[in-house]
Structure formats: structure tokens, C-alpha cells
């Protein structure tokens, strides 16, 4: 269940409880029973407040995490593929964007062909450039300029293309990854996006 739905429900039920509690609290205030009136408003008011504060807190924490993960591409590689890059592999660039209901990763690394085959495994299927661009060409338009500056040239120079639908089981609505690889330079680019 997407977490935004949970926050929306929390705020909605808080407002539903607040509507009948408000007139009762006004009557209690008029009778000089302020403590009882505040208790009456505390739960629905807290639910409404949490429905706004929790997403804001997640956003701030997510932005901090995004910055830290993008600054450590080798750690991002390990988190993505579940193993640390071996000595013959050099992780050059990384991008990480965690949203409330989404995750996006992009990596650029230098590796031998047999290592690319290891990463591909059974998840990725080979395709030609035209199929690759038709299926995935619009996905990288929303990437930040600093990421596009290294990602797009790598895609243009690549001669091997692979697509995985789905990449893993963590997202249900959209879950697709790509690898493009230049066999002459050994430069590979990986991009994955998952949305709930």
C-alpha cells in the first residue's frame, strides 16, 4: 500500500473526527472545562497534524539520504546489486532519488564484459538500440542535468543494450531497469526506476 494513501487516510479520518468534536469542545470551553475540551480535540487534531508532519519529515530525511547515496557511488552499486564492486570494476558516477512512493537509481561504471553478464543474470534481456530507445528514451528526460551530462553520452556510445521488466519485486506499479554497455571502452550505464 503506498504510504501517501496512509497519510491521506490519517488526515481524512482526523478531519472526520474533528467535525463532531469541535461543537462539543466549544460547549466544554463555555462550561469552563478546558482540560476536557482539549482532550476532546487532541486525538483528531493530532491525526491531522501527523498527516502533514510525517510526509514533511520523510521528505527532509529522504533528501538527506539521496545526497549521501549519490555521493558514494560504490555504496550505491553494492546496495543495488547486493555485492561490492570487484577490483576490476570502477564505479564512476551515481545518482539516487528516493521519493515517498518511488525510487530511482543511475550508475556509471567501468567493467569487463563477463562482469556485465554476471549483473545481467536472468533478469535482463538483450535488445537493439531502436527497441531500447523506443521503450526507454523518455525515462531519462527528467534526470537532473548533472546526471544527464554523464548518462546520455554513455547511452549514445553504447553498443549493447539490456532491459529488465521487472528489475526486482520491491515496486508494483512500475519497475523497470536498463543497462547499456560499450564493449570498446568498458563503460556501462545502469538506470532503474520503481513506483508504487
Report on the structure:
The protein has 196 residues and is of the alpha+beta class. It has two domains: 3-67; 72-195, Protein Transport Mog1p, Chain A (3-Layer(aba) Sandwich). It is built from six helices and six strands. The chain has a six-stranded antiparallel beta sheet with strand order 1-2-6-5-4-3, sandwiched between helices. Strand 5 (174-181) and strand 6 form a beta hairpin. The longest helix has 38 residues, at 34-71. The mean pLDDT is 85.
Q: Give the N-terminus to C-terminus distance in angstroms.
A: 8 Å
Task: Compute the number of strand runs.
Answer: 6
Write down the CATH topology of the largest domain: Protein Transport Mog1p, Chain A
The largest sheet, given as strand count, sense and whether it forms a barrel, is:
6 strands, antiparallel
Roughly what fraction of the amino acids lie in strands? 15-25%
Task: Outline the fold blueprint.
Elements: H1 3-30, H2 34-71, H3 73-81, E1 90-98, E2 102-110, H4 113-120, E3 125-127, H5 129-136, H6 145-157, E4 160-164, E5 174-181, E6 187-195
Antiparallel strand pairs: 1-2, 2-6, 3-4, 4-5, 5-6
Helix pairs in contact: 1-2
Short description:
The chain has 6 helices and 6 strands; from the N terminus they run αααββαβααβββ.
Keywords:
196 residues; alpha+beta; Protein Transport Mog1p, Chain A; 2 domains; 6 helices; 53% helix; elongated
Amino acid at each position: 500500500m503506498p504510504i501517501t494513501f496512509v497519510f491521506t487516510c490519517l488526515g481524512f479520518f482526523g478531519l472526520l473526527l474533528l467535525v463532531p468534536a469541535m461543537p462539543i469542545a466549544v460547549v466544554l470551553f463555555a462550561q469552563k472545562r478546558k482540560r476536557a475540551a482539549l482532550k476532546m480535540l487532541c486525538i483528531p487534531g493530532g491525526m491531522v497534524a501527523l498527516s502533514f508532519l510525517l510526509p514533511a519529515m520523510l521528505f527532509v530525511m529522504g533528501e538527506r539520504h539521496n545526497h549521501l547515496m549519490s555521493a558514494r557511488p560504490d555504496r550505491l552499486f553494492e546496495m543495488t546489486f547486493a555485492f561490492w564492486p570487484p577490483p576490476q570494476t570502477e564505479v564512476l558516477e551515481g545518482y539516487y532519488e528516493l521519493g515517498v512512493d518511488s525510487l530511482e537509481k543511475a550508475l556509471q561504471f567501468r567493467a569487463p564484459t563477463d562482469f556485465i553478464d554476471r549483473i545481467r543474470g536472468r533478469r535482463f534481456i538483450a535488445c537493439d538500440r531502436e527497441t531500447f530507445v523506443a521503450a526507454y528514451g523518455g525515462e531519462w528526460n527528467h534526470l537532473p542535468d548533472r546526471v544527464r551530462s554523464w548518462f546520455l553520452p554513455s547511452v549514445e556510445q553504447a553498443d549493447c543494450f539490456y532491459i529488465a521488466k521487472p528489475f526486482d519485486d520491491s515496486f508494483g506499479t512500475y519497475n523497470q531497469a536498463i543497462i547499456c554497455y560499450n564493449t570498446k571502452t568498458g563503460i556501462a550505464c545502469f538506470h532503474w526506476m520503481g513506483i508504487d
